[in-house]
């Protein structure tokens, strides 16, 4: 019996299963259309991040195998995207150009059955979502090499939009120089975070070359282009942008380094069961004021997962504090903590509650 | 009855369907694993492009709706990718950096359950696939703005690899200048193909500005960066690379403009039912020699779909001709035509037979 004869009955089984799956997928789509009709009666939103994330968590939990849970989630993300597209092909603005990580972040959140809208700036992404030209926007918010994206934080302060979801994408650091070798290199430049993230690798491979923290990895790549004694650590895309050559790819100590994107829109996301809440606060600058301000969190047993400070431009207060906490604003303990925070803060803005990314 | 009460039974139906789909997907994966065991006995390849394209064509044909055929194909591409990953996570080399169209082309061919390997040059992609570091490579072969990718054509001439598939991705042209406006612009520069592809739009919007064909769109973007009187037409990514600003996005007359990528590997793809065959020929440079050389194609009723000539560096012949024809090398008429072509050509190399991209 040759291999094709052995494979034929198995392939027939697969084809029969595919036919069944195809029927069920379309039956699912029909029910999703009914959901759409119900929603249309009350102008309820087509995209419900908390519902989609619940479905994805459920299929991963119930997955009997042998398929891997993550791969099953990728399939169901596309299933939901295709069903959603029958009601409305959701339009998502992102920081262009097309063909970059930002576009991939759009697909990771919404599946491929969406309409991506490449914008030339973060400001334009916000405008498109605020004006309704796009249903949602996807903006970078924190980058393990560049730190927080200041422009996004500033715009979040003013916008009427909510954060309705987050996307997290893997990030890699590479070592790059003008001529693609380490000959004659006396300094390795990068953002301090990137230097820290490649610390073990650098100690092992180039323990004797001086490391210098600069404003950003892009700045480091620019320096490497203009100075043959400088090596830069930056993302691969910087090598292309600044016309330098990669000496070693993927040198970060933690291969799970990630960039976070915020999904912004008019939508207020309902609780999914595993959520976080982002807010901005400020306080008059007195010693200890910040710690006192945040005390309602511990009082109500709310964990803080992120804390960023950012100079205010107004002069009225010295800093804005960007805080992420575990839980949804509708959770009782979170609601109480937020109410107290608001009372004591000179400035308070809730940015949104949304599911933790998968 | 409020909206959540109306949605609840529908969501329960969806959850029940998802549970059934999940079971069938895993049953499919089990059969795919059996396929893997049969293949392992004879070292048969895990990835069979002709089989996958047949499955995708079949689900599109049999799709009862309401889901759109293209969206159903996206779902099944991920299903096959996830099943394949149980046997082996296929490693695919591509022209990096990560986060570009080349990476997206990998996912479009293989689904997301693969291991992408970003390479710094087209040469390195070929090397990785030749050495077996990667199972396949994905290289750009033809670009509607830059024409053919010469380096890929040159490497195809020498490689022991076959073309085992193709991927086609949409391409957009944008108009860009140093300061983001058309004030003071006296020339619009681009590759001649890009100028042609934006002809109607340019006639309508800027009929009186001189158009100048340059070597490539990247060159045009570089000129725009250095000269405030020049506007360039190029892909959005060039605006980022050359630090110029987009004035108008997506100005190409045909929104279906595409870039082609070749999938290269040791695999010889079997017939899928709708295939093409790529080959390279040369002939001594006599008047009419090319036309005479190609006559076996018409004799055996084989349609030529693409014809590119490229100067040979050897000096022994004047040109290499890159020819694509309809049909598979195993088809009787194609096999006869190829045998005759080979007999008459000074140089003949079969690059591979593979399915038309979806």
Automatic annotation (TrEMBL), chains A, B:
CDD domains: ACT_CM-PDT, PBP2_PDT_1
One MF term in the entry's GO annotations: prephenate dehydratase activity
Domain Prephenate dehydratase: 91-266
Domain of life assignment: Bacteria
Gene Ontology CC terms: cytoplasm
Entry-linked InterPro entries: ACT-like_dom_sf, ACT_dom, Chor_mutase/pphenate_deHydtase, Chorismate_II_sf, CM_dom_sf, CM_II_prokaryot, G/b/e-P-prot_chorismate_mutase, Preph_deHydtase
EC number from the UniProt entry: 4.2.1.51, 5.4.99.5
Gene Ontology biological process terms, A to Z: chorismate metabolic process; L-phenylalanine biosynthetic process
Catalytic activity: chorismate = prephenate; prephenate + H(+) = 3-phenylpyruvate + CO2 + H2O
UniProt function note: Catalyzes the Claisen rearrangement of chorismate to prephenate and the decarboxylation/dehydration of prephenate to phenylpyruvate.
Official protein name in the record: Bifunctional chorismate mutase/prephenate dehydratase
């Amino acid at each position: 019996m040759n291999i094709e004869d052995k494979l034929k009955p198995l392939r027939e089984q697969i084809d029969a299963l595919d036919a069944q799956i195809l029927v069920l997928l379309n039956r699912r789509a029909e029910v999703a259309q009914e959901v759409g009709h119900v929603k249309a009666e009350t102008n309820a939103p087509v995209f419900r991040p908390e519902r989609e994330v619940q479905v994805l968590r459920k299929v991963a939990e119930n997955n009997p195998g042998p398929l891997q849970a993550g791969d099953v989630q990728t399939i169901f993300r596309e299933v939901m995207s295709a069903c959603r597209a029958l009601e409305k092909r959701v339009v998502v603005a992102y920081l262009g150009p097309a063909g970059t990580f930002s576009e991939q972040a759009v697909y990771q959140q919404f599946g491929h059955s969406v309409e991506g809208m490449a914008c030339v700036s973060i400001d334009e992404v916000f405008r498109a979502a605020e004006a309704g030209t796009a249903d949602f926007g996807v903006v970078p918010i924190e980058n393990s090499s560049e730190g927080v994206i200041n422009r996004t934080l500033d715009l979040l302060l003013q916008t009427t939009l909510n954060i309705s979801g987050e996307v997290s994408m893997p990030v890699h650091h590479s070592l790059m120089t003008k001529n693609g070798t380490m000959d004659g290199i006396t300094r390795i430049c990068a953002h301090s975070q990137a230097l820290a993230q490649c610390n073990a690798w650098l100690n092992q491979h180039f323990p004797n070359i001086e490391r210098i923290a600069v404003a950003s990895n892009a700045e480091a790549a620019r320096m490497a282009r203009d100075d043959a004694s400088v090596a830069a650590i930056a993302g691969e895309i910087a090598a292309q942008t600044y016309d330098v050559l990669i000496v070693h790819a993927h040198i970060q100590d933690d291969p799970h380094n990630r960039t976070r994107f915020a999904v912004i829109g008019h939508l207020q996301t309902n609780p999914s069961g595993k959520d976080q809440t982002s807010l901005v606060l400020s306080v008059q600058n007195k010693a200890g004021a910040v710690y006192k301000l945040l005390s309602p969190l511990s009082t109500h047993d709310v964990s803080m997962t992120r804390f960023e400070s950012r100079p205010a431009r107004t002069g009225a207060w010295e800093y804005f504090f960007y805080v992420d906490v575990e839980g949804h604003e509708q959770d009782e303990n979170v609601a109480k903590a937020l109410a107290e925070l608001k009372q004591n803060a000179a400035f308070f803005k809730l940015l949104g509650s949304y599911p933790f990314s998968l």
